[in-house]
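Board notes, transcribed. Complex of a protein with zinc ion.
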Amino acid sequence: MFCTVISAQDKVDLSYYLPQNVSYNQNIPTPESIVGHQVGQWHITHDKLVQYMNALAASSDRITIENRGKTFEDRPLLLLTITSPKNHQNIDAIRTEHIAATESNSANTANMPIVVYQGFSIHGNEPSGANAGLLAVYYLAAAEGDYINELLDNTVILFDPSFNPDGLQRFAYWANTNKSINLNPDPSDREYSEVWPGGRTNHYWFDMNRDWLPVQLPESRARIASFHKWLPNILTDHHEMGTNSSFFFQPGIPSRTHPLTPKLNQELTKGIATYHAKALDKIGSLYYTEESFDDFYYGKGSTFPDINGGIGILFEQASSRGHIQESDNGILTFPFSIRNQFTAALSTLDAAKNMREEILKYQHSFYKNARNEGSRQANKAIVFGDSKDAAKTYHLAEILKRHKIKFNEVKQDFTANGKRFKKGYSYIVPKNQKNTRLINAMFEKRTTFQDSLFYDVSAWTFPLAFNLDYAEGVSTSNAGAEVTDLKFKDGNVSGRSNYAYVMEWHEYYTPKVLNSILSNGLRAKVGLKPFGLNGKEYDYGTILIPVQNQKLNAADLHKYLNELAKESHVQIDALPTGLTKGIDLGSGMFRALEQPKIALLVGDGISSYDAGEMWHLFDTRYDMTITKLDTKSIGRADLSRYNTIIMSNARSLSESSTKKIKTWVQNGGTIIGYKNTVKWFNTKEFAKLEFKKMERTAKNISYEQRGDYRGAQVIGGAIFEAEIDRTHPINFGYKNDKIAMFRNTTIFMKPNKNSYNNPIQYTKRPILSGYISKRNLDSIGSTVPLQIKGLGRGTVVAFTDNTNFRAFWYGTNKLLMNAIFFREEL
Ligand SMILES: [Zn+2]
């Protein structure tokens, strides 16, 4: 009986999913007729999904399709626009009117379609969404009758069938290759436990549902461009959660809604929820709302629309993970999870149709209120920049550009907040503009909160993440022309020298330049002290490239450096003499540098997020070739090929691998460890590190409150201020005495007795932005996020904080680069 039930569920047919009493156009191909299997029988691979979307677009006059770019693995980023054929004929006018209405006080919503963005499976191993998408798009193309006609007349659907093509493909491969003919629901079957790193993330192992605001990944860039092009009224984001749960739809926990989100947004979310409830009641599916998930971090898909005049909706379906699995709610089949997602996709559209004018009017009032807020600060602006780093400044400006935030050049150099803002190295953001609320969400520092629990980070203040100087409330009279064509500052070599070239270390891409020089077998040195020449001051960490005794002759060296400076946007100066004010160029204070040979540990025992951030950093920003050394391969690897090993947030390693790595450090290697690795360094006696003990006894906390009590002691992600010793090589390239650090751990390292061994130290009350409990704040003051210790002839570098968080923490990437390039000077 058991087996009959299971195999019957495997042979599901379309009628299991589709609404009753609807006729379907026979000329529209079903999913099965194109992909070769019924929806839910196998996990859809991305290539087959693309095939079906193209087939539907070709056969239906309700659908157009576009390819907005490629993932890292070269998969297309498709978007389908679905509406009535009549609307399609006027689609440009509909879009123009839709946007114009957000900029006017007198929009007429009577005949205006509502815009709904539906997206699926941003986490690749939460596949019921993308698989349900096949059914949703079939229904929208093929259903006949008054209901669908009215729906399509009143709605423009932006249909994003796979938010994360690379992850979806990776997971489909896993689930399908482990499927047996006789489906086995035993949760211990291999089918239900993926190998590292799993299919959740994209190519470089990023959680793409954290990138809606930073927009650093190609998938997000395409999606955010579509978003701002259309400003959808509703955006849905279909996920999966634990196998024993039921189905979740928003609203989430009310007290955890970001205070910049209007109250009405959450009320409308509740209104939309009644449609999901009604539809799920009808098919008998259990669900819940308001008890988990939240709308705080605007970098998530279901929260990002909330600061852009729309309403974001999160769906979470209990995951069958593979094809069928035992659960607290009985046998959970993949088709069942798909049917719930499909049902919620249709109930979203039903809500949109019925609440159309109310939701459109909400959007119009959102922007009207934003305009009023902006005009109250008509002459005010934010300025940001770094007088020594144009590229980092450019990259923050690039994010503003992607969000259609307007900004201007600085008219002329000026000082605000004690910082100098240089033309060409700074931008001004006027507050009086359409996206003024989004600007607030990106730039604000927040340290008081209604709730002490967060689903994700509690702070993301962008100028701090970039470690840029910035000032709020400056006058717009400092603004020059609006930047319409954002460009990198040109790099160049000031001239040809027969003696030496120098490059200050502050620009973001200097590690790329230095790595190219060293890996091409050219010699370079680092200056441990500042010096001056020809009226210019060169700071700590300036790179010296002598002309004599190089592999290239003087002419070729000049040509090579010139090309390198151009492509890396850096300034290299040609010097005619070695005699300077300060250390001369032949001084022993210039130290020869060695080419980094890096192994980045990946695989079991290592956090894939942290490792992926580094892989992405080396590969896409600095063009550095690194070896991704799997923890299972350490035993047979020849470690002498590397001078640097990086362990990002490792919790464990086998005894034999530990011993091998320790011997390698003792023989002169540099090991750089992050977060939990720091504790591991201590227990495995790589370095003697002292931690502040976190003892905690609950008082007056009930059993029911215990989860919240524990959760409140977590640092989910906040920003802290540290003082830096700029004379220490770990801090070369930073021009200020203070730095903003991101941390999401509660590992508090005690400082060393000798002050010179504490090159980075938190200030007494270091919280700059984000949530930290009072107890933790008392503990973190004056501790250190970094310790550097010797081990034999080698070096152990221990970071408690993440210097490369989610690809947008440009501000502390250089700390890692310094640990790598200047490892022998640490
Ligand atoms: Zn998810």
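The first strand starts at residue 23 and ends at 24. The CA atoms of residues 453 and 712 lie 6 Å apart.
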